[in-house]
């Protein structure tokens, strides 16, 4: 009989437990990526900009599920290091973000270290557990995401 069938409720704070897990997982990735001088958030930002091509900051923030001020804070050191550049947009008020050649090279180097961290997580947790975790996270994100439409 499952715990919910027996009437048992989850104990503890889900937010706290998730934060504990993300901190621990981040430690593995951060240790590997530190060898390239990047943090995991910076590697992710370079990867998304590379995938989307020159992109407006608003679209980049939406894709990364972060607010504009967090994006700006995360972009600043990458722009200062010459890994990203902010270019004029279609009009005077708009901008776009692009990855530089130096950014591409650093991201490629970091990708090897990211892969080493991912392989370690897969070994420690087991591939089946990682796949199940990914599926559970994706399902939870979908359930907790605000409705995109107001058709009701």
Question: What are the salient characteristics of this protein?
Answer:
152 residues, Arc Repressor Mutant, subunit A, two-stranded antiparallel sheet, 6 helices, 7% strand
Topology, please?
Layout lengths: L13 H20 L6 H13 L4 H8 L3 H13 L3 E5 L6 E5 L1 H25 L1 H18 L8
Antiparallel strand pairs: 1-2
Helix pairs in contact: 1-5, 2-5, 3-4, 5-6
Organism: Noviherbaspirillum aridicola
Pfam family, one: MarR_2
Protein name: HTH marR-type domain-containing protein
**Element pattern in H and E:** HHHHEEHH
How much of the sequence lies in strands comes to 5-15%
Biggest sheet architecture: 2 strands, antiparallel
β-strand number: 2
CATH fold category name? Arc Repressor Mutant, subunit A
Shape: globular
Summed up:
This protein is mainly alpha-helical and 152 residues long.
Commentary on this structure:
With 152 residues, the chain is mainly alpha-helical. The protein has helices spanning 14-33, 40-52, 57-64, 68-80, 101-125, 127-144; strands spanning 84-88, 95-99. The protein has one domain (14-144): Winged helix-like DNA-binding domain superfamily/Winged helix DNA-binding domain (Arc Repressor Mutant, subunit A, Orthogonal Bundle). The chain has six helices and two strands, in the order H-H-H-H-E-E-H-H. A hairpin with a 6-residue loop joins strand 1 and strand 2 (95-99). Helix 1 crosses helix 5, helix 2 crosses helix 5 and helix 5 packs across helix 6. This is HTH marR-type domain-containing protein. Residues 11-142 form the HTH marR-type domain. InterPro entries: HTH_MarR-typ, MarR/SlyA-like, WH-like_DNA-bd_sf, WH_DNA-bd_sf. It holds the Pfam family MarR_2.
